[in-house]
Amino acid sequence: MPAAITIPSLLQQLGESRYQEIYNQQETETPQQAPLRSPLQLPLVQLLALSDFAFKVLSAHPHWGQWLLAPEQQASYPAPEVFSEPLEELDDARAQRRLRLYRQQYWLHVAYLDLVCKNDIADSMRYVSELSDKLIDAANGWAYAQVARLNGEPLDEQGERLPMMILGMGKLGGFELNYSSDIDLIFTYPRSVPTQGGRRSVEAQVFYTKVAQKVIAALDQHTADGRVFRVDMRLRPFGDSGPLVMSFVAMEDYYQEQGREWERYAMLKGRLIGNANAYHQEFYTLLRPFVYRRYIDFSVIESLRKMKSLIAQEVRRKGLVDNIKLGAGGIREVEFVVQALQLIRGGRERQLQTPGLHQALKALTALTVFNDDQYQQLWHDYALLRRVEQYLQAFADQQTQQLPDNDQDWLRLSYLLEQPDEQGARALIDAAMVRIRTEFEQVIGFEQEPSATVDSGYVLAWEHGDIEALSDVILDSEQRASWQAPLQHFRERVSKQPIGKRGRDTLDKLMPQVLAQLQKISASGEVFALVANVLDKIMSRTTYLELLLENPGALQQLVRLCAHSRWIGEQIAHHPILLDELIDPAELYKPLPLDAYANEIRQYFLRIDEQDLELQMEALRQFKQTQQLRIAAADATGVLPLMKVSDHLTALAQAIVEQAVNLAWQQMVARFGRPEGTDDEHKDFAVIAYGKAGGLELGYDSDLDLVFVHNHDGDSNTDGDKQISSRQFYLKLAQRLMHLFNTRTSSGILYELDTRLRPEGSSGLLAINIESFLHYQQTQAWTWEHQALVRARVIYGSQDLATRFDEIRHSILTQSRERVQLQQDVQQMREKMRQHLSRDNELLFDLKQGHGGMTDIEFITQYLVLAYAAEHPQLVTYSDNIRILEIAAAYDCIREGEAQQLIHAYCHYRGLYHVLSLRNQDKLVAKADVQQEITSVSDVWAALFASSLVD
């Protein structure tokens, strides 16, 4: 029995009052309580004065007071078993109650030893750890028995059970658990074999997952008796997104292929809980190469330094003061010092391969890494802080490392540290932390954090997969909630990708920066998902991850552009090479001048081998993607207005067509020689663009409607060794162009080429003589083909051919037409298209094909040209709708007001179409939002065609 120690009068009064409340005011008492009535048992008075937790427990179980006073309870001893009855007979409620009462009783004993008997801290830590082992092992045995009752159990080749094994991490693993700690666990099993002997056999993964879930519930679930431990499973492979339990083989694969530096650090403390079995050594053997390198490994210093830097930042972020664990010179820094030296030298010095800090410190001293004085001082200071931590937690069974914030607890702590007051206690603690800090700086070094270092909340959010870690940074709970799903989905995708150690390390550094950039723009969950999609596509290509990590500006632009445009985000995801374009924002948002695309692509191809067709095809696609990104970036951020965007996209397409023709020409000439009278500058070949390209209105995903013409007949041949007719040559040239454009490479297709507008459509020749083209237009073309010709122009070809095409187009479009028949033809074609293509409904409006939509305006424009160009040939000057409508109004083919209504509606529709394209959404809008434009277009259509009928 310990001698009575005088404690401060305030605490003495508190203890006596509590004692009286428990033992002298009971209406009924047990035989065990009777001896405690009088006189006061001073050890219990002292315990009740120093621990609110002890007061709570003894109030509920007064008879444990007499148990504490027994001589055998005055020191720690081997932890007793938790369950005495057969495990399979214990239902959930009985098992959970027994676990919790065991915890209460023996943690009361630990508090008594620490606060009254002044037990040595090393012994207390080991005692708490051993008691915890018993609780965890008992829960595991019980859970296994319960699951095996229904499912049988996995057996090895000798018919012996294959247990689920629990790896205790952190202080539990090192036999250094503190009084109120949570426990970090990892579950594993030796072999993947189905169960035997149950009602039905299940796979090992299913069986052990059920056991693991039962273990966690047995320990962590809050019942009327409280809980046993808070169980933290986040240290397992893949963290929260990983399986709850993994086989030895899966664990080995993970740590060898994807294990990160912090996991090496954590695994130093890993210890299998329970009695050793045949598989313990096998498990340690497979993990040892991951934790301990054969060579002296100084790379861990930088990793541990960064870890400590993040912890220090977290301390500041949370406003933590007086933290004896995480603060400068705290418990964590001693652990860093010892574990850093273990990781550096442990591969060669086997005595360092121990989870216990004290044992490791002794081994380092034996290896002369520390001298005896250093060892004694470091252990003394560490033990002092662990004592303080133990006392603080025993006061109220709360997991805390904060020095007291109230007078009563300072009185308690000062008394236990044998100091006269708070000032003396603080001085004792501060001196120890200063000495620890000095040792830490000598071993680890101290890295000054740059001002731009990301808030550690982002690190915690990424590592733990929990956006709530950012609650101090992102105040909007809805925004936080919108981020959680994309974060979780991305972490799950990461867990399934074999990205290697370098990639994982880079990703772990990058993701907090990504979260910080997303928060800067208050990004939605949708934007988060877009950015995550890009990262998902580049995850296995570490160089791209490193590009974003090493170029914060590029990461900033990626987030900004994804916020502006889903289309851009998906383009970058599909074509990660575009990330290079994000490095220089000055260039990114500055598209080339309209007349510079052709020269730029020529310069681009000077670096490419003329014989490498595959590389040429990739280069065409990459050039398009790069330039489209610049255009889209300028568009999304308002640098380019709508009409200019289409001008740039059209100019880009023309430059690519020209380069593709040159490539195809070189390949055909190499095989067949040149057609008679041609050379590289005069190919006698032209490309005619229809539709959006012809009308200078290309969008981001527009296809190209092209027709190929030449001016050679079938009588001439090429001049190569393998001669063919000139007509065949141009057919093969067109086919080669189709191949260059439509073949799907790793970068996708170039453009979707549609050549069905050529004479006789899909059954016609792919490349046709220009005069044959004229003949067809004069004798066989339908009205809709003449409509299409309104928006046609040469985008590549010799001046002679371009001039000839303009003449043909002029002559066809300026023909005199019977107005009523023309009206009927136009209306019939429009109605046919609408029936096949329109997605209008009562609420939504199809911008392109809906009644009163873009196609109606285009048909009106084409009708005006075909109806009035014979009188006003100026109508055929341009191929774009806006200028045609302006000319039609100038010549009274349509009223000025009507023309302006159509121009306004067309521009408005195109603007909406563009926005939806950048968002990668269907081109449908609410009818109510565009009802004015729908009405004005429909009214013009009705008035225009009604007046034609009158004529």
Description:
The strands form four sheets. Strands 2, 3, 5, 6 and 7 form a five-stranded mixed β-sheet that branches. Strands 8, 9, 10, 11 and 12 form a five-stranded mixed β-sheet that branches. The relative contact order is 0.04. With about 950 residues, the protein is mostly helical. Mean pLDDT is about 85; it is low at about 1-5 and about 445-450. The protein starts with 8 loop residues before the first helix and ends with a helix. About 60% of the residues lie in helices and about 5% in strands.
**Which outline best applies?**
elongated
Helix content: 55-70%
The largest sheet is:
5 strands, mixed
Could you say which structural class the secondary elements and strand pairing correspond to? mainly alpha
User: What Rg do the Cα atoms give?
Assistant: 40 Å
Q: Mean pLDDT, as a whole number?
A: 86
Beta-strand share of residues: 5-15%
- List the total number of helices: 38
As residue ranges, the low-confidence spans are 1-5, 447-452
Distance between the termini: 121 Å
Number of strands: 14
Topology:
Layout (H helix, E strand, L loop, with lengths): L8 H15 L18 H9 L1 H9 L3 H6 L22 H24 L5 H31 E3 L10 E4 L1 H4 L9 E7 L5 E3 L6 H17 L10 E2 L12 E3 H10 L3 H7 L3 E2 L7 H12 L7 H19 L13 H15 L11 H10 L5 H25 L10 H10 L5 H22 L12 H9 L12 H19 L4 H21 L4 H14 L3 H9 L1 H13 L1 H9 L10 H4 L8 H9 L7 H24 L5 H31 L12 E6 H4 L9 E7 L15 H17 L10 E2 L12 E3 H10 L3 H8 L2 E5 L1 H15 L5 H19 L6 E3 L7 H15 L12 H10 L5 H23 L5 E3 L4 H20 L1
Parallel strand pairs: 3-5, 3-6, 9-10, 9-11
Antiparallel strand pairs: 1-4, 2-3, 2-7, 8-9, 8-12, 13-14
Helix pairs in contact: 1-2, 2-3, 3-5, 5-6, 6-8, 9-11, 12-13, 13-14, 13-17, 15-17, 18-20, 19-21, 20-22, 20-23, 21-23, 21-24, 22-23, 23-24, 26-28, 27-28, 28-30, 31-33, 32-35, 34-35, 35-36, 36-37, 37-38
